[in-house]
Amino acid sequence: MNDGLVDAFNHSAWATNLVLDTCRGLSDEQLSSAVTGTYGSIIATLRHIVSSEASYYRRLSGKDVSWHNDAIESADIATLTTHAEDMAGRWQRVLSTPFDAERTFIVPWDEGVERDVPAGVVLAQALHHAGEHRTQVCTTLTAIGVPPLELGVWEFAEATNRAPVRTTADG
To answer: Domain for residue 48, yes or no?
Structure first.
């Protein structure tokens, strides 16, 4: 159906989960850390990633995400992890059925302008947005002494066996 997108969204979910897992052991003070040029603190950025993903999903699927407006601004790492796992499953279901990437949605833009945005652009935005903000969290993590995370697609493919080692028998 949407096979290439499945890997892209699986990578995004895997990377978000790895960042959340890394943040699980941080203190409240560390989670409140921010560096110049990023969205905000680690915890605020993680909340923003998960909340925004629910918004993109709702826009594309037309289905509400029950937890989306339930105090996401105060969600802890465990709650964000649960929500991120929920979103991974939701994306799997959306991507398991055909959809029209050219179908348009009305999206509020700057200065009160509305635009007709194709579904394919919304999907691209969902992936880009999460990646951009994960990078910002990783920048802050490194600044507070957490070793750099390897969140690349190759690392995802290796970790999830999407790129298995070839054996001699493989040719």
So the answer is: yes
Question: How far is CA 49 from its chain centroid?
Answer: 6
Domain that holds residue 52: 3-164
Helix runs in 24-118, H state only: 28-31, 42-61, 77-95
**Cα–Cα distance between 151 and 138 in angstroms, integer?**
10
State the helix-helix crossing angle for 77-95 and 3-23, rounded to 10 degrees: 180
pLDDT at 166: 92
CATH number for position 32: 1.20.120.450
Which pLDDT score, from 0 to 100, does residue 120 have?
Answer: 95
Q: In this structure, are residues 105 and 59 in contact, taking their beta carbons and an 8 Å threshold?
A: yes
Locate 120 and state its tokens.
């394919």
pTM of structure: 0.93
Reference 122, options 91, 153, 84; nearest CA is 91
pLDDT number for residue 168 = 78
The verdict on residue 153 lying in a domain is: yes
- Report the pLDDT value the prediction gives residue 77, as an integer from 0 to 100: 98
Residue ranges in the chain modelled with pLDDT below 70: 1-2, 170-171
Could you tell me if residue 18 is inside a domain?
yes
Q: 169 lies in a domain?
A: no
Domain count, the chain: 1
